[in-house]
Specification:
The complex is a heterodimer of chains A (167) and B (745).
Chain A (H helix, E strand, L loop, with lengths): L7 E7 L2 E7 L5 H8 L18 E4 L2 E4 L12 E3 L12 H9 L8 H14 L5 H8 L10 H11 L11
Parallel strand pairs in A: 1-5
Antiparallel strand pairs in A: 1-2, 3-4, 3-5
Helix pairs in contact in A: 2-5, 3-4
Chain B lengths: L14 H6 L14 E7 L5 E8 L9 E3 L24 E2 L5 E7 L2 H10 E7 L6 H5 L11 E9 L2 H4 L5 E9 L11 E7 L3 E6 L4 H12 L6 E5 L12 H16 L3 E4 L2 H7 L6 E9 L5 E13 L5 H11 L9 E9 L13 H18 L4 H6 L21 H12 L1 H11 L5 E14 L5 H5 L2 E6 L5 E4 L9 H13 L6 E3 L18 H23 L8 H15 L3 E5 L8 E2 L4 E2 L4 E14 L5 E11 L6 H21 L4 E2 L2 E2 L18 E6 L16 H4 L1 H13 L5 E2 L3 H15 L1
Classes of the chains: A alpha+beta (167), B alpha+beta (745).
């Protein structure tokens, strides 16, 4: 009989707030976020790290939360789509997605916004190749990506509002 | 008066919820006491069920278990014919046939339980190809394996061959394609005999699900309620299949007395739900030496899978589009939808037209070559013009300017200069470049008499707060229904967008405005929204509370006043066929569609002769779509459709193994990423359509039709290789290019 592994206590920062929860060590971060913390903005598209719908920022780097075991999040700093806007003030990337038509069905959008935020934090003025590479881990079936590229460019324009929530 | 909203790219109505992660999709909802459901499926393609065994190590008494004998009403999920069971009880006709349903509070235990159920089956001979189905190697459906056939006859084809200088034949095939909406299918159901059945879920057509549940439970229609949740893409994949998953969730809820959620994971969604119909098209075309079409004989066959579902209507659209946007005096089209032991193929953006248009647009490049004409010159000599007739005998009363679209597409893509440059530079280069195009049309709205039969209804009501609410069953699935309906209503009423609400599609409170399919939502239902808005305004004008040229404030005051003094302020509009349209189902002839969108697409490719990869490097899409309601959304539809069609042309290969999809994962079923898609340059010609709202035509499916043949025409231009089948994966290119190199010695 295989011994059942028991839940462990985990502490991490989620969207700037300290979160404590109990989870099986290999529970997916995606499930912890959605089921334990009720942060359902992070989506499951494939469960195998291909589509990027579940992307979140972990210690500043983009990860697919379906591939991150809960045990790895102990002590980590996690930002989800719910932590991208500052109150009612949307992030420049979110504003640009609205203005440029970067969101259609909306299912890839949380992950796509996370990827765009991560890209801009790395490259404040990404070129076409950098944008394509920066978003290549996030699948969108609606837009053909063109309006998402346009949104990233727009978000980097000087006229766009300063990136809120940036650390 | 408010500024006009039609023609302007206003902000998406539900956009803020989508960019902040607040939008609620079905898997984001949790109800008190809710448990989870899963489906146990067959493991072979065809056979007779001997029994079901529930294996050891599972606390079965904790589970709700549903089989066919638990169904209160009819055991069927019927789209058109009545051949598909909700749960198989005797016979299995495809490898993903649902047989047993399980529900339990613990998702993980549920998964173990699913694996512990054994279905014992006596296998029967199965059919896995169009050829074997037509050859009747086994009879698996009806008397001859044919779900539906059509015959189009225009002029006298048999007599016309004698007048042709050249006759060109060709056979073309298209593979299956998975929708791959990013949100997998899912439903939550609550059900009991007293209150009836309510389902919430991801779907395109609330009243299809409603109809299925009425039959399944044998309940009166008012005891069934279907509510759409935010829907993460459809593309046709959530047209008919949601009836199945809703039925399963509802049966588990009915038996357990608890709300039940079924959400498929990606693997189950890919293998078990519908996909695009594979097709085979044979062309025989007679032309004169100067490039005029004399006769066309087309044989079009689609693989419907195990049950009839929507195959007959997919076939009809594919048949009508099979002869392309060309005038030919003598046309014969024979078409069939046949049965195989694969899960039923279903609605997918374009609905048969991408398959038959792929064939004719590849074929016409070959015909042009046979008579030494440039492909564009051959097409120019045969393009349909105003007052000419289509294959079904429809007289085109509108302006049609395919030459103008071709001119613009060639100019924007720099077609001629590139064609010359590539011819010069390709010899000796390891990356061969090429450019190709396609010309095509897409009929908007239901085919033939379909819209008359639907008789769609839209209602509108003023609220005491001074807003106007649109009531329709048409769903927002990303394409912009909420926003576009709001633009249309705001313009008709002369008020701001903030004053317009769009009710959530809920069969308990919205009328049946028809399914959200067939490029009909903006054009057909949008026109009903406009009519309902004008009706509401007419009531206010007639009441004397409002004058024609009013401000928004005056409108709001008049609404409030009306409600206070006279009660509810509502209006209703119902579809009326535009005058002069006639369709004959018996002879399959007449006005197949109220109108068509017309297009010419140009694809530029680079084919790597070392890796055998073909990439699309530039794409120009020029189309005439009536008046554009929302420029960003319209371009978004075209770009998204082109991307999906690039996938269909080059990457998306459903690998079949005995009726089952063998590569049901995003890891090995490849859709285009941000790194694969070229710049897609979209241009609209706007010729207002008299019977569309603000002059709009439908556009949702159009962009799926043209890219694949344009891309393969470009590959032929680059490499000299004539591919007649999609997807053109590197494996296919390697085989063809190696063969060609070998033939040359």
């Amino acid at each position: 009989m295989v011994e059942i592994v028991s839940k462990i206590g985990i502490e991490c920062m989620v969207n700037g707030k300290l979160s404590r929860f109990h989870a099986y060590p290999i529970a997916r971060l995606l499930d912890v976020l959605r089921e334990e913390l009720k942060l359902t903005g992070t989506k499951e598209g494939c469960g195998e790290g291909e589509c990027g719908a579940c992307a979140v920022l972990m210690n500043g780097a983009i990860v697919n939360s379906c591939l991150v075991p809960a045990i790895e999040t102990d002590g980590a700093d996690i930002r989800t789509i719910e932590g991208i806007a500052t109150g009612a003030q949307l992030h420049a990337v979110q504003e640009a997605f609205l203005e440029c038509g970067g969101a259609q069905c909306g299912m890839c959008t949380p992950g796509m916004v996370i990827a765009a935020v991560a890209l801009i934090e790395r490259h404040p003025h990404p070129g076409d190749a950098e944008i394509r590479e920066g978003l290549a881990g996030n699948l969108c079936r609606c837009t053909g990506y063109q309006k998402i590229f346009a949104a990233v460019v727009r978000a980097c324009e000087p006229a766009a509002r300063p990136h809120s929530g940036k650390r | 008066m408010e500024e006009k909203k039609i023609g302007h790219s206003v902000i998406r109505k539900e956009g803020r919820d989508k960019v902040t992660g607040r939008a609620q999709y079905v898997d984001d909802l949790a109800f008190r006491g809710m448990i989870h459901g899963v489906t146990v499926r067959s493991n072979i393609a065809r056979g007779r069920i001997r029994g079901v065994r529930y294996g050891g190590g599972i606390p079965w008494s904790e589970f709700t278990i549903v089989t066919a004998k638990d169904i209160p009403g009819k055991n069927e999920i019927a789209a058109i014919a009545h051949d598909q069971p909700c749960l198989a009880d005797q016979f299995i006709n495809h490898p993903e046939e649902p047989i047993v349903l399980l529900a339990h509070p613990d998702k993980y235990l549920l998964e173990e339980a699913r694996r512990a159920v054994q279905i014992d089956v006596d296998p029967l001979p199965a059919i896995f190809s169009i050829e074997d189905s037509l050859a009747k190697r086994a009879i698996i459906s009806g008397e001859d394996n044919v779900f539906k056939s059509y015959h189009v006859e225009k002029g006298d084809v048999d007599a016309a061959w004698a007048r042709a200088d050249v006759i060109v034949e060709g056979e073309f095939r298209t593979g299956s394609q998975e929708h791959l909406y990013i949100e997998n299918q899912g439903m939550i159901a609550a059900a009991n005999p007293r209150e009836g059945v309510t389902v919430w879920g991801s779907l395109q057509c609330p009243y299809y699900v409603h109809k299925a549940l009425v039959a399944l439970f044998g309940l009166p229609p008012e005891k069934i309620r279907v509510i759409q949740t935010e829907t993460g893409g459809g593309f046709g994949g959530k047209e008919e299949y949601p009836s199945m998953i809703a039925a399963h969730a509802a049966l588990l809820a009915w038996k357990s007395g608890k709300p039940v959620k079924i959400v498929y994971d990606r693997a189950e969604d890919m293998v078990a739900t519908t996909k695009r119909h594979p097709s085979r098209t044979r062309h025989r075309t007679g032309v004169t030496r100067d490039g005029k079409l004399v006769a066309m004989d087309i044989d079009f066959v689609i693989d419907g899978g195990a049950y009839a579902t929507l195959s007959s209507v997919v076939l009809s659209r594919g048949t009508i589009h099979a002869a392309g946007p060309y005038f030919c005096p003598n046309v014969r089209i024979h078409s069939q939808a046949v049965a195989t032991n694969a899960p039923p193929h279903g609605a997918f953006r374009g609905f048969g037209a991408p398959q038959s248009i792929f064939a004719i647009e590849r074929h016409f490049d070959q015909v042009a070559r046979a008579i030494n004409l440039a492909p564009e010159e051959f097409r120019r000599r045969n393009f349909l013009r105003k007052n000419q007739t289509t294959a079904t005998g429809q007289v085109l009363h509108e302006e049609v300017d395919l030459n103008g679209l071709l001119d613009r597409a060639f100019k924007e893509s720099d077609y001629q200069a590139k064609r010359e440059r590539f011819a010069r530079e390709n010899p000796g280069a390891s990356i061969k470049r090429g450019i190709g195009f396609s010309s095509f049309m897409h009929g908007a709205g239901f085919t033939g008499s379909g819209e008359v039969t639907l008789a769609s209804i839209v209602e509108m009501e003023a609220t005491p707060e001074g807003c106007v609410r649109i009531l329709a069953a048409s769903t927002e699935i990303g394409q912009g229904t909420n926003t576009i309906f709001s633009q249309i209503a705001a313009d008709a009423l002369g008020i701001g967008l903030d004053r317009i609400e769009v009710a959530r599609p809920d069969t308990g409170s919205v009328p049946n405005s028809g399914p959200t399919v067939a490029s009909r939502t903006s054009m057909v239902v949008g026109k009903l929204v406009e009519a309902a808005a004008l009706g509401l305004k007419r009531t206010l004008l007639d009441s004397g509370l409002l004058c024609e040229a009013c401000t928004e404030d005056e409108f709001v005051r008049a609404c409030r006043r009306y409600i206070e003094t006279r009660g509810p302020l509502r209006s209703r509009s119902q579809y009326e066929q535009p005058p002069g349209l006639h369709w004959d189902d018996a002879t399959f002839s007449g006005d197949a569609y109220g109108t068509y969108a017309w297009a010419v697409y140009v694809a530029e490719v680079a084919v790597d002769t070392i890796t055998f990869e073909a990439r699309v490097t530039d794409f120009v899409a020029v189309q005439e779509v009536g008046k554009v309601i929302h420029p960003i959304f319209a371009a978004g539809q075209i770009e998204g459709g082109v991307a999906q069609a690039i996938g269909m042309a080059l990457y998306e290969n459903v690998v079949w193994h005995e009726g089952r999809m063998a590569n049901g994962q995003m890891t090995n079923y490849i859709m285009p990423t941000a790194a694969d898609i070229p710049p897609i340059r979209v241009f609209f010609e706007e010729q207002p359509y008299a019977f569309g709202p603000g002059g709009a035509k439908g556009i949702g499916e159009l962009p799926m039709d043209g890219p694949a043949p344009a891309i393969l025409n470009a590959i032929e231009n680059a490499t000299g290789i004539c591919l007649r089948e999609i997807p053109a994966t590197p494996e296919v290119l390697m085989e063809a290019m190696t063969e060609k190199a070998g033939a040359r010695g």
